Amino acid sequence: MPSARHGVYHAPGAHRRCAGSLTCYKPGHRSRLIYRPRRDDGNRDGRKSFSWRDYRDLLIAAHQQLGGPIVLVWDNLNVHKAAGLREFAEARDWLTIYYLPPYAPDLNPVEGIWSLLRRGWLSNVAFSTPEHLVQTVRRGLRHIQYRSHLIDGCLTETGLTIRPT
Fold it and tell me: Which of 50, 58, 103, 145 has minimal CB crowding within 10 Å?
């Protein structure tokens, strides 16, 4: 059961950067974090965050990595409900989407991932260049990615549980 969100981070004199991420849980398997950073290069029709196409590509990559059907639990970010993404999901028998209640970030395990990143790798750091920021974010996400107990803890903090059907 993946849960998704994006994070936004800035560096002095830099374009805005963001990353989309999924926390993935399956009973009896190691929890996973799948993420994709994206830089605003100014050529994206004015959009500074993940577009529905970026999320589509993240879901395709997750499906390939996980090798099975995905039940996605998403927050109510407007791009998660975009027509293009809805049409994409309806055409995929391997993808089922449920939405969290509005204004319920405490139920989204990915919020915990970004909290770990902000309180750990991004705290008390003066980024000297945009690349320094990007490297630090990637290093932090990679560290979390290979420590399933951290990902499990983010689910535990929500109070939600995974029950196979």
Answer: 103
pTM: 0.79
Structure tokens at 132: 């320094």
- Residue holding tokens 């990679």? 142
Indicate the length of the chain as a whole number: 165
Q: What is the spatial distance between Cα 128 and Cα 112, in angstroms, rounded to a whole number?
A: 26
Buried b (16+ CB within 10 A) or exposed e, 143-155: ebbeeeebbeebb
Instruction: Name the DSSP class of 80.
Output: G
Q: Tell me the C-alpha distance between 161 and 146, whole Å.
A: 21
| Residue-wise pLDDT tens digits, 21-71 | 899 998 889 999 998 877 655 555 556 678 899 999 999 999 999 999 999
Residue 164, CA distances (Å) to 28, 51, 161 in order = 10, 31, 10
Q: Which amino acid is at 24?
A: C
Task: Please spell the DSSP secondary structure of 53-113, one letter per residue.
Answer: HHHHHHHHHHHHHHTS-EEEEE---GGGG-HHHHHHHHT-TTEEEEEPPTT-GGG-HHHHH
d(CA 155, CA 73): 12
